[in-house]
Structure formats: structure tokens, C-alpha cells
Amino acid sequence: QVQLVESGGGLVQAGGSLRLSCAASGSIFSINSMGWYRQAPGKQRELVATITSGGRPNYADSVKGRFAISKDKNTVYLQMNSLKPEDTSVYYCNAATMRWAYWGQGTQVTVSS
Q1: Alpha carbons within 13 A on the beta-carbon side of 39
Q2: What is the model's pLDDT at position 73?
Q3: What's the pLDDT tens digit per position in 53-98?
């Protein structure tokens, strides 16, 4: 089992920045990758960025050049710069093992225009 605790969401003006954090606990040795997904009202959950245990990042085209994912031991971060109103969503942390995908409780990010 892996538990994920997110923090760092909030309200920011367009063009601003936020940093999300996600701390993993439990069977962290089994995690192959961690990442962030987001889901806006009425839309499907979509990938934002992931990072493998070896540190290789992957980004959605919509956030390339604006967001940066990083990790430190059992915590993954998402630095979000140049935020746009369309980035408004609930952001979910994800941890993937060989067999399971674990999710955090979600943190709201709201970008005002």
C-alpha cells in the first residue's frame, strides 16, 4: 500500500506560480513512477506530468515549458509557472507500481483571469 498526501494548491492570478507537493509513504520501494493529473468539472482526468524512479520526466503538451516536475526521496513536486485560467482544476498526485495505481485526495488550483 502507498499513501499520498498533497499540498500546495490555491488561488492565483493568471501569470502567477504555484508549487504542489506530494509525499508518499508506505511501500514506497515499489513505486515505479509518480506524477500529477488534473480534472476540471465535466472533463476527464488528464495527465499533467510524470517522473520515473530514475528521474525521467514526461509532460503534457499543454504544460511543456511552463511546469516542471521533480522529486526528492519520497516527495514529488510540480512547479507551475505562467499559470493560465485553463489550468484551473483539481490536481491529483499519482503513484504507479507494477500492479497498482494510487491516488491522492486532490488539491484545488484556481487561476483567475
Answers
A1: 13
A2: 86
A3: 999 999 999 999 999 999 998 999 999 999 999 999 999 999 999 9
Closest CA relative to residue 110, chosen from 5, 45, 16, 3: 16
Query: Taking the CB of residue 40, how many other CB atoms lie within 10 A of it?
Result: 13
Specify the range with the lowest mean pLDDT, choosing from 26-30, 92-96, 98-102.
Answer: 26-30
Pairing of strands 10-13, 107-112: parallel
Outline where DSSP puts E strands in 53-98.
57-59, 67-72, 75-80, 89-96
Closest C-alpha to 107, from 13, 14, 5 = 5
Q: How many residues does the chain have?
A: 113
> Which neighbouring-strand residues pair with 41?
none
SS3 (DSSP) at 62: coil
d(CA 93, CA 34): 7
